[in-house]
Write a structure and sequence with these properties.
Blueprint: E1 2-3, E2 6-7, E3 24-26, E4 29-31, E5 38-43, E6 48-54, H1 58-77, H2 80-96, H3 98-109, H4 113-136, E7 141-145, E8 148-156, E9 159-163, H5 173-182, E10 186-190, H6 197-209, E11 216-218, H7 223-231, E12 235-241, H8 244-256, E13 260-264, E14 269-274, H9 279-291, E15 301-307, H10 311-322, H11 336-351, E16 355-358, E17 375-378, H12 385-388, E18 395-401, H13 404-413, E19 416-417, E20 419-423, H14 427-434, E21 441-444, E22 460-461, E23 464-465, H15 472-478, E24 480-488
Parallel strand pairs: 9-10, 9-12, 10-11, 12-13, 14-15, 14-20, 15-18, 17-18, 20-21
Antiparallel strand pairs: 1-2, 3-4, 5-6, 7-8, 8-24, 13-23, 16-17, 19-22
Helix pairs in contact: 1-7, 2-4, 2-6, 3-4, 4-5, 5-15, 7-8, 9-10
Length: 499
């Protein structure tokens, strides 16, 4: 049954449910890819095909950019407050259809219901930030000298693009779309080909909210689509979220064509545990950080650096982790390749002398999908792949040290700089660590230190390529350029060198 928000997804439980096929959204119409190619979209919990997605290429990007370029003059001329009104309507539509959208994400991504709903809630929070921009981002003016006035306004760039990952199908697009669209840009979005349905549903919802045709376009695909976006002369800026390897390639390729690029990469987040921390607070929050969303998030605390005797915390974490139920407390990973990759890291760590305290290898959940159980490795060293590579799965690697300074040296040595946190009951210890962490997002007694709007999201070092952060005020600045106007209307009798 078709609704204003697109074909209804009828799944209301974890039981397998099929969905429609996904095409490209260009100029307000769903169209097939020029390549004639498509691939299966597989439900990770069940390992069954729930639909197909077209795989576009350069010709599809050309068509999307042409539609966005045609829509730009009218959209740019639309007052910012009117653009924001569309986001207000979209917020209501998303809230009204929250349950359907969250279940759709459960099925295409494998998230647990609570995780899926939380990701939609966060997407709506980002949307609320976009709604507020018309009030927050007004330009300024000042009489800078006798009879001379300077003013600044923020102008859209034109056609811009976003490339987003599989782990948060609606939340990450909403890191970009509200700021970019309210600013007056038109947009080409490349969703992950593994999870296209969340973005497809967003396109229907934007349409229902009154967004003019061509302002938002979706092009599905893989490497060829990404390369076409990086190379297209009419795309002025690119936002990217994904692995560090690809983030660096996108940044370099886009910048080589003169584009503004902000590319968020991967992470190996360190969580420092001091033996004065609250036992239950630390023991519950650390596994929740490592294993939430099956470890498939850039904010997962995948390395625990224990300072001093932290055995009672480790024992309690092992106890709590062993109580986790597959399918209820932890969902599947995205595909079989992820299962194989995670297995290789644990096998390698064990061969190098690490002890497997909780073993997730071979664990199964309901359905014939891609399951991997929560895993705790002890005795890991910083030079082991399990101690320094981004595994992107439900694995917590424990490194033991004697002093806080040793822990900080390990964290600082990592090439990544996304997030770091410390668990302690001592305020001085916490401040000492936070001031020395080489990470853009830091936490104290918080395992997942994600900034809430309007505070911006973004890491340091090899976790980010480009200037500024993706969300908040930085996001608005990224998608705009300032126009400065200096005016003088009359000669001043007492003019100075400035007037």
């Amino acid at each position: 049954m078709t609704h204003p928000t697109g074909p209804r997804f009828e799944g209301k439980s974890y039981d397998f449910a099929k969905y429609v096929d996904c095409q490209n959204w260009i100029g307000g119409e769903w169209v097939a890819a020029s390549t004639g190619e498509s691939q299966a979209v597989v439900n990770p919990r069940h390992g069954e095909v729930m639909g197909r997605v077209v795989m576009g290429g350069a010709a599809d990007v050309d068509a999307a950019v042409a539609a966005a370029k045609a829509a730009f003059p009218a959209w740019r001329a639309t007052p910012m407050r009117e653009r924001a009104q569309i986001l207000y309507r979209l917020k209501g539509i998303m809230e009204e259809n929250m349950e359907e959208l969250a279940w759709l994400l459960c099925h295409e991504n494998g998230k647990l219901w609570g995780e899926s709903k939380a990701s939609v809630d966060k997407a709506i929070e980002c949307l609320e930030m976009g709604c507020s921009l018309a009030n927050m981002m007004a330009g300024g003016q000042l009489d800078v000298s006798r009879g001379v006035n300077c003013e600044v306004s923020y102008e859209p760039l034109g056609v811009v693009a976003g490339i987003v990952p599989f782990n948060f199908p609606t939340m990450v697009p909403m890191w970009m779309l509200p700021q970019a669209l309210v600013s007056g840009n038109t947009f080409v979005l490349k969703p992950s080909e593994k999870v296209p349905f969340g973005a497809q549903k967003l396109a229907h919802m934007f349409k229902a909210a009154g967004l003019p045709d061509g302002v938002l376009n979706l092009v599905n695909g893989a490497q060829a689509t990404v390369e076409a976006i990086c190379d297209h002369p009419d795309i002025k800026a690119i936002g990217f979220v994904g692995s560090t390897k690809v983030a660096k390639i996108v940044y370099e390729r886009g910048a080589a064509h003169g584009k503004r690029v902000l590319a968020l990469g991967g992470a190996k987040n360190h969580l420092v545990l001091v033996n004065d921390a609250d036992l239950e607070l630390a023991s519950e929050n650390i596994p929740a950080s490592a294993f939430g969303c099956a470890g498939q998030r850039c904010m997962a605390a995948s390395v625990l650096v224990g300072v001093g005797d932290v055995q009672k915390y480790v024992d309690r974490m092992v106890e709590l982790t062993n109580q986790m139920e597959m399918g209820k407390d932890i969902g599947p990973v995205i595909d079989q390749a992820a299962v194989d990759r995670i297995t290789r890291y644990i096998d390698d760590a064990e061969k190098r002398g690490a002890k497997v305290l909780v073993d997730g290898r071979g664990k199964k959940g309901p359905g014939n999908g891609f399951w991997f159980g929560p895993t705790i490795l002890d005795g890991v060293t910083p030079d082991m792949p399990a101690g320094c590579d981004e595994i992107f799965g439900p694995v917590l690697s424990i490194i033991r040290v004697n002093t806080l300074d040793e822990a900080l040296r390990i964290e600082n040595k990592s090439p990544y700089g996304n997030a770091a946190a410390i668990f302690t009951s001592n305020g001085h210890t916490a401040r000492y660590a936070v001031e020395r962490f080489q990470a853009g997002m830091c936490g104290v007694n918080i395992g997942v230190p994600v900034p809430r709007e309007p505070f911006s999201f973004g890491g340091w070092n090899d976790s980010k390529f480009g200037h500024g952060d993706m969300t908040g005020e930085d996001g608005f600045r990224f998608w705009t350029r300032p126009r400065k106007v200096t005016t003088k209307w009359a000669k001043q009798a007492d003019q100075t060198w400035m007037g």
